[in-house]
Amino acid sequence: MMDNPMRKRLGQYFSGSKVANLLVDICKPTCFEHVIDPMAGIGDMLYASIQYGVPSANVYGIEIDPVVGLQCKKKISPGKVFIGDAFSLEPYFFFKRKAWDLVITNPPYVRYQTLGNYESRGIVLKNAIQIRRSLSKIINTLDHLSDEEKICFLKIIRYYSGLSDLAVPAWILCAALTKHDGQLAMVVPESWISRDYALIIQYMLLKFFDIKYIVEDLNSVWFPNALVKTYLIVAKRIKFRRNLKDIENSQYKYIRLASTLVGERSLIEKLSYDGQTGRKAFHSLLDSDNDVSGDGFELKHITMTEFISKMNASPVFNKLLSKLEPRLQVIYEPVIPKELRDVIGDNLHYCNLSDLKSWGFQVGQGLRTGANKFFYGKVIKTDGHIDFLKVDNIFGDKIIPVSHRYSLPVLRYQSELSDSYVVSKEMLSYRLLYIQDDFFTDDGTLRYPSDLPLYEHITEAEHMTIYSGGKATRFSELTAVKPNIRPADPNKNSKQRYWFMLPELAKRHLPLLCISRVNHKNVKCFLIAQDGIVVDANFSTLWTDCVDKRKVYAIFALMNSLFIRAYFESIATVMGGGALKIEATHIRQLLLPFPTDETISSLYLLGKRFAESNPTERGSVQSEIDRLVMRLVTGIADPQNQCEKLQAFLQSKINARTI
Q: Which CATH architecture has domain 4-335?
């Protein structure tokens, strides 16, 4: 078996029989169908299809790793396996087939940073540009696609983000290989919903498919080594949709399966439903026309209107649409997630809601230095305008004096804040080395002789060998650090900049509010109490240019309300281990009470009290915030009942992801 670094380089997380059997069971392929797995691995999906009744002669696989490909050949013999690159024309000429009844796969998850030319042990990997070009060539050879469909696929290929991992072009390839009326079945991480770069895949599904089932690995146990929540997606290829509004009345089935259902032989071995157990119970669940829930499972029917409204909440999606379909206007207005509406009351007349943009706020991510081991130091003591910083252990047991000119307080971890919701400089243990071009004079010498210890530290770091991704390198060669280097430009009156000079801090790095991206229990929004505090990329950040400063405390109150915490539990990503990951895109999806002057004033007063209260007083202020927000959302004069239901829902979601 291949070593772990190589498996990681190829994005290999093999499905295993349990996941493969469940996905094939959902698809129910017949003995007349032809099945392909373009990223076949050791053949788990194809073997499960054969076990289901598909003849081996009708099974096809592509695998780039020769060692793994040979295992696949043995497993599905006499099925056909091509050892080579799925993003090339060769396998489809070899198979003499370019369209399949069922395209089923667990695509590789190779991050965009490592999508580069690579050749080792008979494995040749394309870089991101080559993959994009090859995909276009493949599309142009597919006779089952109409000219209109080819044009749409080629636009999708042209405009998918350069930040996409390899799973995105894998999605596009698999979709294009699916016959009309055929099925597409994929194993995907939750990022296919939560990341902006996956929006183009959701758009592609809307244009070419009807989503039939989405099955959630509720407790992130199906791939324990990958430490991510997994979904199974099954969709049926349909006639090309010229107008996305044609999808208005359709819906799909969303199924959650808990770890308690997993047995020795299957992921649903302990499922009990409708007087049946195991696989029979699962088939009955798949066929149910009603929303149902039971011990370890839940099924909901989700309208495509809601699916699209989540997409529409992202400014990235609107930018995409302007490129893909410039004549298309907003498709649907965003709505509160059905899961929340079911708790609060689906038949309520919800009040006028808006997003953070309407409040004048922007959302982003904190500072990513690219080399934390150099740029961060821990404060040992402060003497006047000098911080004495304990630098990373790779430099040994070293403490250096750094002027406040280059030492900025930085929030790195939520644990630094204890039970506080308000961030002040005094509570922060770390400092950022924020060295700019005034460090040197015009002739290249140190501007201030007192900075000599810092300069010596820089010199040591510059010549140090470090390890990144298992490879020996230097700080100046790190991918995220290289762009700091810039020659002097007399025409722009700019000085030379070096690897240790971070770019100018943006407002997202010096925000007014922040939310930890990884949350183990309750989600908290923190108020940055003082100017000049840098916030690390471990946090999603919020800022505004709005003159009305009341809005800062108003949003602070809103973000800590019961309603918003429950909202996050419905839309954010549950990671392996049960933590809830909140990205900027999740925060942008939130629907908030419309910012009337009265609403702003009421929330401002509560937000200010919340910030100033001690832990004993905080609970009563929290209750006032919860009732006010629920009143603003629903219009109900006394929403105590809704608050209690929402609290029970929130606790159930936290319990489900932390068991």
A: 3-Layer(aba) Sandwich (3.40)
